[in-house]
Amino acid sequence: MMKTGLAAALMFVPSFAGAAEIELASKIDRVTVYPDGAVVTRLGKASLLEGVSQIVLRGLPASVDPASIRVEAQGDGAFSIGAVDVRQVPGEARPALDQVLEGKIRALQGEKAKLTGEVSAIETKRATIENFGKIGPDKLGPDGKVLPVSDWPAVFDAIGTALVKVQGELLGLRNRISDLDAEIAALEKARPVAPRASQPKRDVTIAVEAKAPVAADIAVSYRVAGASWLPVYEARLTTGNASGGAEIAFTRRAELRQRSGEDWSEVAVELSTTRSAQGTRAPELNPLRIAFYEPPVVYEERARLQRQDSERAARPPALAIAPAPAAPDQAIGAAAPKPAEVQTASVSAGAYQASFKVPGRVTVPQDGSSKAVVLTQGKIKPELSARATPELEEKAYLEASFTHEDEAPLLAGEVHLHRDGAYIGKGRLGQVAPGDKVELGFGADDRLKVTRVPVRRRENDSGWLGQARTDQREFKTVVKSLHAQPVKLTVTERVPFSENSAITVELLSQSTPPTEKQVGDKRGVSAWSFELAPGAQKEIRLAYRIKYPGDREVIFDQPRR
């Protein structure tokens, strides 16, 4: 058996004009989905004739990238592949309407319009009768005189009979109109579906030449837009108790969506972390020139300062370690139920990318609906701790941290969080490389009581020009544990910092020394980490003094990161 593989982008052999055309009946066999596109591979069989012929693959989506088309072929005899041509063809025309059906609908609509006119006329007649009935007997006689009392019953009977007759006519007409509406609706439902004018398609023509008839297997792959996958994670934390430690059941899923223009039915799916539509090289830097600043005119400078002031004014100045739920009672001697196994993808990680082969075959419709598949699943032993930011909220929150040890990275995505069987909410996971630390929050802890109160604030106003002004502040934070076991906790606080030499900030001696003077790259943010014994409490004091010129005012601003 001979196998031939050629890239469409490298084929410069001219096509064979006038050669016999062979329709290639193909089916999508496998798809590699990227976060921003997909590569589709179709398989088909063709019976090649002796001599020159053209294999035609019709009706590919318009989003196919012609430069991405690749052709591979093999057969039971020798043959060669020449040029691969890609042509855009118009979409399918609308189907012809059913003239008989349309005629029936128009006739029924005409009859309905006629009956609607009759209803309007009878309603006018009824209104006239009702108005006549409102005229008193003193004006119904000849020349507007009083009608004799003996004639009143006859008038009343005549008005009542007329109204009854009109009401009956209206009821009959409206019932007939309702029947017509039902008939029209049924006929309209039976109309042939007339789709919108379809998008243009692409036909691929492959020139081949064989010395004898050959039964060939053809594989055509191409890249399409309108397809993507997103990672979605699930973290189920069991906090454990004295007899067992904490554990996270961590599941990585993928949500596939596609609007490529063709259905993927029972196809093999592979997911890749490579972004195929992004740039291939780092951006180029242009030269940067420095020069003396030339100030604008006064009114422009004033307008700029006003804009800055407006923007500045607009800026904004649970370690729940509970016992694990008890397992339900089982009958003595009864076999424990076995949970169903979840099929996961096989992972292939390289130096620059990772891919996941989804088990079995998957159907992904082209309507953009989501298709979820499980990629990986495993158990993780995390380290539990709590974190509190009492300046913003007097609560402590549970955090579970662990090292990502899989060979494939975790792409940024949503993570659904559960704690001891209860759904906590959704978080966000950033890009995580193998070996990086992962930190997840699992809600507030009601067994850690956090309070923060201002202890002292002292300001002195300058009495003389040029005298310095000071602002001294002191806060006390108390954390008390109501847990039955030791708890690790981190408290974060901040002290204003200055980038102006005329403004100084001094941390006072009564402050509790932090275990981390600066948290990451956050200037002025410190952290106190400690372990609380059962029933114990911890007090943290923070005191600082700000000094600045007496003829100036200061503001507290949160710089953008």
Brief rundown of the structure:
Helices cover 16% and strands 42% of the residues.
What does this structure look like?
The protein has 561 residues and is of the alpha+beta class. It folds into 4 domains: 2-94 and 197-225, no CATH class; 99-189, Helix Hairpins (Orthogonal Bundle), CATH 1.10.287; 229-276 and 344-445, no CATH class; 448-549, no CATH class. Helix content is 16%, strand content 42%. The chain has helices at residues 99-133, 152-189, 298-314, and strands at residues 2-7, 20-23, 25-34, 37-48, 51-61, 70-75, 79-89, 201-210, 214-224, 227-238, 247-258, 264-272, 346-349, 354-357, 362-364, 371-380, 383-388, 396-403, 413-419, 422-429, 437-445, 448-460, 468-481, 487-494, 504-507, 525-532, 537-549. The strands form 5 sheets. Strands 1, 3, 4, 6, 9, 12, 13, 14 and 15 form a 9-stranded mixed β-sheet that branches. Helix 1 (99-133) packs antiparallel against helix 2. The longest helix has 38 residues, at 152-189. It is flat. The two termini are 63 Å apart.
